Amino acid sequence: MAVTSQWQSASDEDWALALPRAVVIRPLTDQAELTEGLVATASAELGISRSLVYRLVAKFRKRPQVSSLLPGKRRRKAAARALSEAAEAVVREAIASVYLQREKPRLSDLLKEIQRQCQRNGLSVPNFRTVKRRVDAIDAKEHV
Q1: Are 69 and 60 in contact (CB under 8 A)?
Q2: pTM of the full predicted structure?
Q3: pLDDT by residue (tens digit) across 16-53?
Q4: How does pLDDT run across 83-116, given as a tens digit for each residue?
């Protein structure tokens, strides 16, 4: 299967971002040293953060083509779930049976139970932050 280059799959909107970036970033790559003033001006002109200006300059220096300034791949939405349905079920069950008790156990106890169940079922163990987000999302009434 052939991998499509980023520039081949870029939309017109992406090119509409990359072209003005090239006009501003190209002169910065000729500078021996980027000053805060130059970066701040470029940042204001493009409406992007200063850190992104530095990253774009570095990318353009490495590969001086407009396509280097195309926006990167979009990431997964913040609300998207990455766990498999089976792992989600394990987490839900463990929260209900272990964590949502009158005498609330520690989060570490919940994590150990989830780890035990996932290993027993041959599933990958979810990250601590994933479980914490699920616990934090529980309605306060349900929690009591």
Answers
A1: yes
A2: 0.49
A3: 889 999 999 999 998 888 899 999 999 999 999 999 99
A4: 788 888 898 888 888 888 878 788 899 999 999 9
Nearest one of 44, 36, 70 to 56, comparing CA atoms: 70
Find the angle CA(138)-CA(141)-CA(144) to the nearest 5 degrees. 95
Dihedral through CA 21, CA 24, CA 27, CA 30, nearest 10?
Answer: -50
Q: How far is CA 72 from the centre of its chain?
A: 12
Report the C-alpha gap between 66 and 26 in whole angstroms. 9
For the chain, the DSSP string reads -PPPPHHHH--HHHHHHHHHHHHHHHHHHT-SS--HHHHHHHHHHHTS-HHHHHHHHHHHHHS-SGGGGS--PPPPPTT---S-HHHHHHHHHHIIIIISSSSPPPHHHHHHHHHHHHHHTTPPPPPHHHHHHHHHTS-HHHH-
Q: Which domains does the chain have, with CATH numbers?
A: 10-69 (no CATH), 85-143 (1.10.10)
3-state secondary structure of 5: coil
